[in-house]
Amino acid sequence: MKTTRRSALAGMAALAAAPRAFAEAAFPDKPIKIVVPFAPGSATDITARGLGGKLQEILKQPIIVDDKPGASGQLGASAVATAAGDGYTLLMGTNSTNAANTALFKKLSYDPDKDFAPIMRCITGVNALVVNNDLPIKTVAELIDYAKTNPGKLNYSEASASQRVSAEMFNQLAGVKIERVPYKASPQALGDVASGQVQVMFPDLPQALSQIEAGRVRGLGVTGPTRTPVAPDLPAIAETVPGYSLVYWLAVFAPANTPQPIQKALADAIGEAMKDPATAKAMTQGRMDIAPLALTEFAAYVKKETDWWARAIQAAGIEPE
Amino acid sequence: MTRFLTKDFLSGLMFIAFGLVALYFGRHLALGTAVRMGPGWVPHMLAYILLGLGFLICLVAFFTVGELVERPKLKPIALVTLGIVLFALMLERTGMVPALAVLVLVASLGGDEFKVIEVIGNIVVLSVLCIIVFKVGLGMNISVIEGVW
Amino acid sequence: MDLLNNLWLGLSVAVSLQNLFYALVGCMVGTLIGVLPGIGPVATIAMLLPITFHLPPTASLIMLAGIYYGAQYGGSTTSILVNLPGEASSVVTCLDGYQMARKGRAGAALSISALGSFFAGTVGTLIIVVFAEPLTRMAQKFGPADYCSLMALGLVAAVVLASGSVLKAIAMVFLGLLFGLIGTDVNTGAQRFTFDIPELSDGIDFAPIAMGLFGIAEIVVNLERRMERSGAIKVSSLWPTREEMRRAIPAAIRGTALGSILGVLPGGGPTLGAFSAYTLEKKLSKHPEEFGKGAVEGVASPESANNAAAQTSFIPMLTLGIPSNAVMALMVGAMIIQGIQPGPEVMTKKPDLFWGMIVSMWIGNLMLVVINLPMIGMWVKLLTVPYRFLAPAILLFCCIGAYSLQNSTFHVLQVGIFGVLGYIFVRLGCEGAPFLLGLVLGPQMEEYFRRAMLLSRGDPMVFLQRPISLGLLIATAVLLILMALPGIKKAREEAFQEEG
């Protein structure tokens, strides 16, 4: 009933208003494409597909998830940045594409600040701190002691900028020096912690939990400012190392020139979809947090995050390429 | 002169050329040290090895009787490549079917037996097949004719 | 007896009507995408993942696994028929499979490949059941230095793939290594040979290169030969002769053994398996000169090896929850979405799922043989289609397949560029297979080499101190010497003849 009345009202408003307004009121009248700037099967891809299913029901139009991976998300993000601002092409962006990349690359193929209209933050997640099982280390404090008494013994593996920033920030704030060993793929990097080739890693929590629960690596903490309800047993690193905090997020963006009413309609629909528990579970795999934050509030958040990542990346000693 | 037109001598030259290209475009890459190997260490090493092998291959070719290189025909390779490039440029702008038609047409021109009816028939059959397999069957995000379907 | 009980439990799960249905769907979809060049299991499984939310966990995993093997089977089909390897692991099949097809033995090559794969799949499944634990422990002992030495062995073996000049084959391996460097350097993030094109920063994909070097170059060469191929292939019997079977069987067994072991190692398992199996056969054979010209062993052995490796690459995922390739990563994703934590706990907590899946793997392999054997006749008929129809169709499927990799037209352009390069290679008598192996293994080798050096704090002795690495390096050296001896002798003889 509710939807019928709403569309009836919209219809009347449209009749009274200019043709342009009519087009907006009728939004959406064709399939919507969500571009995922990372590979099929990545967390971003799974989140977009999880959201797409419910969004399709709500908006009554097919949602197409289009993976355009490559160049740390640059290819997918630029595709959306240059798309028509009509609400039919959206980006499932992340803290990489829409905040950190500014500081990671000398030259980006898009402008994260000017090319996008932030619609809705969907998910926040944290990295976990894990160590090899054979080490006599059970807590964050013990890790710091061990690193101080055994200099040059510990290595950390990383396969992404967020993992590297997590580790270097830890090195800095805890006053230790764990050596970096770069990897191309996260599962391999974590596997080498389990088998003892390297000792420490900061993998994302969904990935880490599966190994921690199976007892193949030891979880010491999470990178968020506080504990997360997803893994209440893991203390926040900040409890031992004050001031330590790193959170990543996944969010929907539209091209910058998308009309306000369409932005609002999209934010409303996405917000409603995420209220559905099954959708929320499909999006987070039960291992991240649903954290809706819409439109202007989210835009302010993105600004703050861009500054934060720029500072963190610089402090971690990562040179822009 | 024929000594220089053998397959072996020319492939030696090709390896040398690739080595030189790699050295030129890799010149700004830092070499680093054995512990902290820079991004340029391996490219430089590979480039020098290719140069060395290239010279060796040329040398051996010069002193042995080698197979002469066949005179290339430019039409097939040029038209096939042109067809692929046109397909790439058209696919996202015009949709699958027009791009497909151009590719099949241009590629068919590259052969010797060109009959208009056959090519049209081929285009029709392949269009139907591709729509069924890629669009309907696998649900790929390709438009059949841009803006229409 | 436990084992038999478990297998019985698995069988009772797997033969339920619903699960059989999903296995069949998976195998059919897999065969289809395997036959289409470029469209791989990764993209397909990712697209189908949301559908699996609504299926019971066992059924969804059975279907996804079916797609994975189906793609393996289908990939061999195009390698043999039109010289188009679907993925790195079927490059080797092209070498002799396509030559067999040109001699009118396409049917025999296809059926040997299908039967060899089925045999390897059966053995691989049994190995998962019996040896999953010890094999996992073996894989975990492999450190970066060991991997690096393994890759070195693989690269030296690549030279054996060539049927022509050894020197040129070595140069092709190095050229492949050089092309493999294109992209972002993992350690420093520096861009190497990317020419400021963002699409190149992740390196060049294997598929467009394989399509260009093998498929497109072959089409162009055939077009030049004034269509002499149109209807030229006489198709003799679809089935292998007794003699062919006699040669194929031992090769399939050796390939299976090699593939099963290498499959457990993450990264390039099936590829290394197929390449080393081929090398082994060529070295063992009494007729090494037949290789590259349609030797049956050259089809049977790598086809068995890559399928065995495809099976055993499930082991790290099942025992450790660590995916060894992109398809496995998606399977892990599918399990997590269903609320199942991959790892050894699955075996104890959800025995019906675990054993059901294992038995379905075997049933999937059986289904594929049943689906594929009758289709051989159809595939072979396809070869009698005049080339002027077939050539544009192959071109088209390559282009669409390349596009589908990342939904990017840049990949289609790559097919064109590598087509030209492949054509030059053919004209100059340089072989593509060593180039491709260099390209696939090179980046991994550099990554492992630099990681080993980082972990040893710059001490190169680490490669000699680790027993596994030392053993592999010795094997590499022996292979090098074996290869160099006849080569040097021959070159000297030729030089003398020239002067005389």
- End-to-end separation of chain B: 59 Å
Give the % helix of chain B. 55-70%
* Spatial gap, N to C terminus of chain C: 73 Å
Cross-sheet strand order for the largest sheet of chain C: 1-2
Oligomer: heterotrimer
Tell me about this structure:
- The complex is a heterotrimer of chains A (321), B (149) and C (500).
- In chain A, 45% of the residues lie in helices and 19% in strands.
- Chain A has 321 residues and is an alpha/beta fold.
- Chain A has two domains: 30-123 and 249-315, Bordetella uptake gene, domain 1 (D-Maltodextrin-Binding Protein, domain 2, 3-Layer(aba) Sandwich), CATH 3.40.190.150; 128-239, 3-Layer(aba) Sandwich (D-Maltodextrin-Binding Protein, domain 2).
- In chain A, strands 2-1-3-10-4-11 form a six-stranded mixed beta sheet, with helices on both faces. A five-stranded mixed beta sheet of chain A has the order 7-6-8-5-9, with helices on both faces.
- In chain A, strand 1 (32-36), helix 3 and strand 2 form a beta-alpha-beta unit.
- Chain A starts with a helix and ends in a 6-residue tail after the last helix.
- Chain B has helices at 7-25, 41-63, 74-94, 96-109, 116-137.
- Chain B is built from five helices and no strands.
- The longest helix of chain B has 23 residues, at 41-63.
- Chain B is flat and about 55 Å long.
- Chain B has two domains: 2-63; 74-137, no CATH class.
- In chain C, helix 4 (57-82) packs parallel to helix 16 (351-382).
- Chain C has a two-stranded antiparallel sheet with strand order 1-2.
- Chain C has one domain (2-497).
- Mean pLDDT of chain C is 81; it is low at 227-232.
- Chain C is built from 21 helices and two strands.
- The relative contact order of chain C is 0.18.
- Chain C has 500 residues and is an all-alpha fold.
- Classes of the chains: A alpha/beta (321), B mainly alpha (149), C mainly alpha (500).
- Chains B and C meet through helix 1, helix 2, helix 3, helix 4 and helix 5 of B and helix 8, helix 9, helix 17, helix 18 and helix 19 of C.
